[in-house]
Write a structure and sequence with these properties.
The chain has about 280 residues and is an alpha/beta fold. The protein contains ten helices and eleven strands. The chain has a six-stranded parallel sheet. A three-stranded parallel sheet has the order 3-2-4, with helices on both faces. A two-stranded antiparallel ribbon has the order 9-10. The longest helix has 20 residues. The radius of gyration is 19 Å and the shape is globular. Helix content is about 40%, strand content about 15%. It has two domains: about 80 residues, Rossmann fold; about 120 residues, Rossmann fold. The structure holds guanine. The site of guanine has 9 residues, from strand 4 and helix 6.
Length: about 280
């Protein structure tokens, strides 16, 4: 048996086409702001992808790219300006921020109605009490992908590896909302293999190339790989040893072309949700 590939790229394109059609009817156009501090190369690539997606969908996009040495007060001023900018319906602060900046304080200052990333305590708190509003893009994209392939999570044992605020914590809540039994694992988990061997579904969001091997999973497992790493040949790869694990999994996301493209599609969708909130 070899796994069905969960084609995030194709689903993301379909969603982006639908958004583009919707935006044709809208006036004014939805606007997404992106704050990119400094010159982190990975962040630059992500932000370029987000801007390109905005242009293609007919959104207005505004990138503000201050120097890496900007002060906390300077960055706060930019956030305040975007909070008040009527052309910008949602905006994000690309993470990570340079160490001297208090990222949480900055995120706390984004108006919840403009929080296109769904990272604010209000957005995340609403999810915690099953009152979903704007959801973080990557976990939202994973749920959309599972839905697209009609994967019923009811009663499944889902194992989430990684406990970040961006992926691990929110995806564990969303899986639980769909009646999966969720185990969260992280860097201090003892005997990870014992737990992953029991999993019906694994979400790997660690950032360690190919750390989930065939011997760690059971036959028929569903694999969602959020990792974006470089292997020994500098080739992009996930947290899962795709070539070997796909031989025994039932479904698996590739890297690239799995979860990544959906993150951008969901950011556009979130911006549309912010747009709708602005018209209320
Ligand atoms: N850094 C890595 N992923 C993300 C994301 O989805 N949003 C932001 N703002 N920063 C990130």
């Amino acid at each position: 048996m070899t796994a069905t590939i969960l084609d995030g790229k194709a689903l993301a394109q379909k969603i982006r086409n639908e958004i583009k059609e919707k935006v044709k009817q809208l006036d004014p156009k939805p606007g997404l702001g992106v704050i990119l501090v400094g010159e982190n190369p990975a962040s630059q690539v992500y932000v370029r992808g987000k801007e390109k997606a905005c242009q293609e969908a007919g959104f207005i996009s505004k990138k503000i790219a201050p120097d890496k040495d900007i002060s906390q007060a300077g960055l706060m001023k930019i956030v305040d300006e975007l909070n008040q900018d009527n052309e910008i319906h949602g905006f994000i602060v690309q993470l990570p921020l340079p160490k001297h900046l208090d990222a949480q304080f900055i995120i706390d200052s984004i108006l919840p109605s403009k929080d296109a990333d769904g990272f604010s305590p209000v957005s995340l708190g609403n999810m915690l009490i099953n009152n979903n509003k704007i959801l973080p893009a990557t976990p939202k994209g994973i749920m959309r992908l599972l839905e697209e392939y009609k994967i019923n999570l009811e009663g499944m044992h889902a194992v989430v590896i990684g406990r970040s605020n961006i992926v691990g914590k929110p995806i564990s809540l969303l899986l639980q909302q769909k009646n999966a039994t969720v185990t969260m694992c992280h860097s201090r988990t003892k005997d990870l293999k014992k737990i992953t061997k029991e999993a019906d579904l694994i979400v790997a969001a660690v950032g360690k190339a190919k750390m989930i091997t065939q011997g760690m999973v059971k036959k028929g497992v569903i694999i969602i790989d959020v990792g974006m790493n470089r292997d020994e040949n500098n080739k992009l790869c996930g947290d899962v040893d795709f070539e070997n694990v796909k031989e025994i999994a039932s479904f698996i996301t590739p890297v690239p072309g799995g979860v990544g493209p959906l993150t951008i599609a969901m950011l556009l969708e979130n911006t549309l949700e912010c747009y709708a909130l602005s018209n209320k």
